[in-house]
Amino acid sequence: MTDPTRILLADDHVLVRRGVRLILDNEPDLTVVAEAGDGAEAVELARTHRPDLAILDIAMPRLTGLQAARQLIRLQPDLRVLILTMYDNEQYLFEALKSGASGYVLKSVADRDLVEACRAAVRGEPFLYPGAVTALIRSYLERVEHGAAVPERAITDREEEILKLVAEGHSSKEIADLLVISIKTVERHRSNLMAKLGMKDRLELTRYAIRAGLIEP
């Protein structure tokens, strides 16, 4: 027999983690080796435990699941990532796929889909719930109809980090301390963000961060 797939589970809700772990640990070919309460902790634990698969919530403190996914895949290119979320949202779905995730699973049907999604990811196959497949097909057909390519991300990873922290209410000094950069650099990134996104103040940035899944409403 092959060794079970080693899983890192990240969600900021303890009860959700407990429920998901029960589902996974009941399977002989799957085992949870580490649990994280936010995306940054997930990245730290991955360095220690070297999991085969990471299951990440989208909306988490410090780093979102999407931010963590990008960092984890850079850290461990052979790592498979699944996004487990309550959001049946096309924008989040596309961002998850662009981040390198192998699948997108809804929490509402995790008891039905999650084990299958884990096994598909380990085989190197994508897993999407039926509504996600419909969204991808619709998007593809719309792009073909208008002759458009898939748009690139509007902002850089660093700008996204700063956007999340701004939206969470941190001051420029606090952001500078958290990211170990100068206040001047924070202000420059913040100015670039507003220019790129066509926004005028923190409130508009916060609304954008909610739409992008960086923070919860």
From TrEMBL:
<keyword id="KW-0804">Transcription</keyword>
<dbReference type="InterPro" id="IPR016032">
    <property type="entry name" value="Sig_transdc_resp-reg_C-effctor"/>
</dbReference>
<dbReference type="Pfam" id="PF00072">
    <property type="entry name" value="Response_reg"/>
</dbReference>
<feature type="modified residue" description="4-aspartylphosphate">
    <location>
        <position position="57"/>
    </location>
</feature>
<dbReference type="InterPro" id="IPR058245">
    <property type="entry name" value="NreC/VraR/RcsB-like_REC"/>
</dbReference>
<feature type="domain" description="HTH luxR-type">
    <location>
        <begin position="148"/>
        <end position="213"/>
    </location>
</feature>
<dbReference type="Pfam" id="PF00196">
    <property type="entry name" value="GerE"/>
</dbReference>
<dbReference type="InterPro" id="IPR039420">
    <property type="entry name" value="WalR-like"/>
</dbReference>
<dbReference type="InterPro" id="IPR000792">
    <property type="entry name" value="Tscrpt_reg_LuxR_C"/>
</dbReference>
<keyword id="KW-0597">Phosphoprotein</keyword>
<dbReference type="GO" id="GO:0000160">
    <property type="term" value="P:phosphorelay signal transduction system"/>
</dbReference>
<dbReference type="InterPro" id="IPR001789">
    <property type="entry name" value="Sig_transdc_resp-reg_receiver"/>
</dbReference>
<dbReference type="GO" id="GO:0006355">
    <property type="term" value="P:regulation of DNA-templated transcription"/>
</dbReference>
<protein>
    <submittedName>
        <fullName>Two component transcriptional regulator, LuxR family</fullName>
    </submittedName>
</protein>
<feature type="domain" description="Response regulatory">
    <location>
        <begin position="6"/>
        <end position="122"/>
    </location>
</feature>
<dbReference type="GO" id="GO:0003677">
    <property type="term" value="F:DNA binding"/>
</dbReference>
<keyword id="KW-0805">Transcription regulation</keyword>
<keyword id="KW-0238">DNA-binding</keyword>
<dbReference type="InterPro" id="IPR011006">
    <property type="entry name" value="CheY-like_superfamily"/>
</dbReference>
